[in-house]
Write a structure and sequence with these properties.
Blueprint (H helix, E strand, L loop, with lengths): L7 H15 L3 E10 L2 E15 L2 E10 L6 H15 L3 E6 L4 H9 L3 E3 L1 H9 L10 H16 L3 H14 L3 H19 L5 H21 L8 H14 L3 H19 L7 H13 L4 H7 L2 H4 L2 H13 L11 H13 L14
Parallel strand pairs: 3-4, 4-5
Antiparallel strand pairs: 1-2, 2-3
Helix pairs in contact: 5-8, 6-7, 6-8, 7-8, 8-14, 9-12, 10-11
Length: about 350
């Protein structure tokens, strides 16, 4: 795939993305922050890091490469967005070289990457890579959405990125599992393409990041407690088992108040709903990813999957490292999909 010419702002975002990737951050570019379906703003870069076993840092980065960047205003805006989203840090990248801009940012706990820094970033080639840009990936997804895949895959991808801001919890974990399932079903049905394989890798990276964040406060717990947390989270979502059972009981009570008791077996209805939750085979995936060894690797596994999702020279699942193949195999087993249909070598 030929490299695509980017606008000045897009190029700056890509170079900053590569810069932060080289520093060890998990980086996602161009995320829409929305509320009830209404787009509010874009987050140019979202950074996620794991400074220690019990702490995580999420950072929104605002990138403005205009001749009149209004840097002070961007500091206000970016700091406010950080507070609204509940993130830990924020950064402003600007062409403005005035020293007082950095001083103002530091006073308000905003890191400013000024015009001097951005100029050095523009003039060096040390961060060039053989990665696809975000624009190239989106074009590829859109192309296959119209062709082989069908459905609005681009919209699903944009929503999945947004959930890193809005649902970095077990509701997000389950959203990414649903996205992984959709791609696995496409692949197992014979629709294996660059787009499907790339989305498999990227959605898997999102799933691992969401899981890593969801269990960060349980790193000191015993393994059985972590396994139970993950299993219940996948079954019942962020509300958890206790709250879900409470909602079921309240719903049943509400039905009883409006319908004649003799017409319906409410005990059977409640039992069926609980059976649907229990039918989600989350124990194996929780047992594997909840182990101390794997829990410590969630972040690095996500970084590796993200890298393979954007590598210009795409590798098939069979060509990945064994530990990455194990994750894909685990997800196949979770959805009862024959892993042989996924872990196959295909011609790029």
């Amino acid at each position: 795939m030929a490299k695509q010419d980017l606008k000045k702002g897009e190029l700056a975002e890509e170079r900053l993305r590569l810069y932060f990737l080289n520093l060890g951050y998990f980086v996602v570019r161009s995320i829409k922050a929305d509320f009830k379906g209404f787009d509010i703003t874009d987050v140019d870069l979202f950074l996620y890091s794991r400074p220690s076993p019990i702490s995580r840092e999420r950072t929104n980065v605002d990138v403005k490469m205009k001749q009149r960047p209004q840097a002070l205003e961007r500091i206000f805006w970016t700091k406010g967005l950080q507070d609204v989203l509940g993130l830990e840090k924020c950064i402003v990248a600007t062409t403005d070289k005035r020293s007082h801009v950095g001083e103002f940012g530091a006073k308000h706990n905003v890191l400013v990457l000024d015009g001097n820094f951005m100029g050095k970033l523009d003039s060096t080639e040390r961060y060039s890579s053989d990665r696809l840009t975000e624009e190239e990936l989106l074009d590829m997804i859109e192309l296959y959405s119209v062709g082989e895949l069908g459905g609005n895959w681009k919209k699903c991808y944009e929503q999945s990125k947004s959930n890193l801001l809005l649902k970095l919890n077990f509701d997000g974990v389950n959203h990414y599992l649903d996205m992984v399932k959709r791609v696995l079903e496409e692949c197992s049905s014979g629709f294996t393409s660059q787009a499907t394989i790339r989305m498999l890798y990227i959605y898997t990276s999102f799933f691992l990041i969401a899981l890593d964040y969801s269990i960060k406060d349980y790193s000191y717990k015993d393994q059985p407690d972590r396994v139970r947390l993950i299993s219940d989270g996948i079954r019942f979502g962020e509300k958890g088992k206790a709250k879900s059972l409470e909602i079921i009981s309240m719903s049943t009570a509400l039905l009883k108040s409006f319908m004649a008791k003799e017409e319906h077996d409410y005990g059977a209805i409640e039992h069926e709903v609980l059976s649907q939750f229990d039918s989600i085979l989350s124990d194996d995936i929780a047992e594997y990813l909840g182990s101390t060894k794997q829990m410590q690797k969630l972040f690095s596994l996500a970084m590796n999957f993200e890298k393979h999702g954007y590598d210009r020279q795409l590798q098939s699942p069979l060509e990945l490292a064994p530990e990455l193949q194990s994750i894909i195999g685990l997800l196949c087993d979770f959805y009862n999909i024959d892993r042989k249909k996924i872990l196959i070598k295909f011609s790029n």
